[in-house]
Write a structure and sequence with these properties.
It is a single chain. By secondary structure, this protein is mainly α. The termini are far apart.
């Protein structure tokens, strides 16, 4: 049968009205049932496609019109895309969702309302990922790419949409190769790619590569990747954990020592985490002297009463506490490194920690710590000497008075008098009331040791020095006329 001239037919049909064309199609369908069924199916298919286009345009229009994100509207748009089966479109919108969420979090400190809305939208995206007809490895790669862009960990609260346990080794190899290529692209994108901050993905890429290699059981390959990345991502902790988990403790120890030296200035928290690993090795090997040496180094890096106690406990086991204590107190008082002492008894840790310009080498703080340490050790005279060399601190003076009350009551009396005068000199009613409390304590101490005359002399001194302060005079009258037995503990002083 000869084919019709389509150009001539188009001209003829173009002259007919819509009603004429409808009647013509109905006549043809009635004469040829096969043609009728074909036309019916064709028109139904086109109607469904038209409806789907309208739904997509409506859903995308809702998303594109939002300048200040209304995540409830975005969620409705995502639901519409999911219902009409536009899974690929929904996956394409995931980066935009993460970007909008990150922008909102950066702009407002309270994220408690924003984060649940973002994760609700992301949940719909994950459903689309589960439904889309992709290979499992492609879904895994897409999911990991989303994690790379998730700088605020918005997706961590959601269950992973991909079951990684179903991936065969060949797919893990494909994932590893993909992210190795991504790492190469990142290296080419900048001369010196940074590894800190949310804008950089290098550390996350390395983690994904090593996860994929571990899933294949390629332990040595993971070690090579981590070592090669040390100059860029400083992944010493990951390397140490990996080596230790697979029985390579000596290698882990070597890298831990190197990492401490590399990180102590830039990332001290990481450096001290590496040091803790070395301490655990020394403990397991029952090397008490090396453990004590590490504890000393911790004290030198951050002197405190607590770290002093830790050193004391560790070195008493080794029998060299007295020597170590003398060297540490000498360092606090005169800034002389204990390692330069001729009788230093502990081994070297192998970790370099410069002390000459360490920020803790501050005279005032060191003297305060010396007072706290010597009071703990019951060396009242030494504590007083250190206290006299620093600026007045009422709370520290009260501690000396309390610690000395039983063994050196004269020192306790002297410091109580100084505390009372310091309060009176503030010329405040609140301070006078505090002074009254300490006057009662001083009175009880003096009566206990039969120093009534000394107490009377001190009160007379206050009357002569501060006679114009009528409120204080009333307090002194009350204390003298109604003595009470009070203990030298507690108090309301917060000065």
């Amino acid at each position: 049968m000869r084919k019709p001239d389509m150009t001539a037919l188009e001209k003829l049909l173009g002259r007919r009205s819509k009603a004429d064309l409808t009647a013509l199609l109905l006549d043809l369908a009635a004469e040829d049932p096969v043609l009728g069924i074909h036309l019916q199916r064709r028109l139904q298919r086109e109607a469904r496609a038209s409806l789907r286009r309208q739904q997509l345009e409506k859903a995308q229009g809702q998303l594109l019109r939002i300048t200040t994100p209304d995540f409830a509207s975005i969620q409705r748009g995502f639901s519409a895309l999911l219902e009409c089966g536009a899974h690929d479109r929904l996956l394409d919108l995931a980066p935009q969702l993460l970007s909008l969420g990150a922008d909102q979090i950066a702009r407002q400190p309270d994220t408690s309302a924003v984060v649940p809305e973002i994760t609700a939208c992301a949940q719909l995206v994950f459903v689309a990922l589960e439904r889309i007809d992709w290979r499992l490895v492609d879904k895994l790669i897409w999911y990991w790419e989303c994690l790379l862009q998730d700088h605020y960990s918005l997706l961590e609260s959601l269950p992973a949409p991909v079951n990684e346990s179903f991936l065969p080794p060949r797919d893990w190899r494909e994932a590893a190769e993909y992210f190795q290529i991504r790492l190469g692209e990142l290296l080419q994108s900048a001369d010196e790619p940074a590894y800190r901050g949310p804008e950089c993905q290098r550390g996350e890429l390395v983690e994904q590569i090593t996860d994929a290699l571990m899933a294949m059981g390629e332990v040595d390959a993971v070690t090579e990747v981590l070592i090669s990345e040390l100059p860029h991502t400083q992944c010493y902790l990951e390397l140490i954990d990996h080596l230790a988990d697979h029985g390579h403790e000596r290698e882990a120890e070597t890298w831990a020592r190197q990492g401490f030296g590399m990180m102590i200035e830039s990332e001290p928290d990481v450096a001290w985490a590496l040091e803790r690993y070395l301490v655990s090795l020394a403990r397991r090997s029952m090397d008490a002297r090396l453990v004590a040496a590490f504890r000393v180094q911790e004290f030198l890096a951050d002197p405190s009463l607590q770290s002093y106690r830790v050193v004391r406990a560790a070195t008493r086991v080794t029998g060299c506490w007295e020597v170590v204590q003398a060297c540490l107190l000498n360092w606090l008082e005169f800034a002389e490194s204990p390692y330069q002492a001729t009788d230093w008894p502990l081994p070297a840790t192998g970790l370099y920690l410069g002390l000459d310009h360490h920020p803790i080498m501050e005279r005032e703080r060191n003297l305060q710590l010396l007072v706290e340490i010597t009071l703990e050790e019951g060396e009242i005279d030494y504590a007083v000497l250190c206290f006299e060399r620093m600026h007045w601190q009422r709370n520290l003076a009260l501690r000396i008075a309390q610690e000395a009350v039983e063994t050196q009551p004269e020192v306790s009396r002297e410091f109580l008098e100084r505390i009372i005068e310091s309060l009176i000199n503030e010329v405040r009613v609140k301070s006078y009331l505090l002074a009254q409390d300490y006057l009662r304590r001083l009175q009880a101490l003096c009566f206990r040791h039969h120093w009534q005359a000394k107490f009377a002399d001190f009160v007379n001194h206050l009357r002569q020095a501060h006679g114009a302060k009528q409120r204080l005079m009333k307090i002194l009258d009350e204390v003298e006329t109604s003595p009470q037995e009070l203990k030298l503990v507690g108090g309301r002083d917060t000065g």
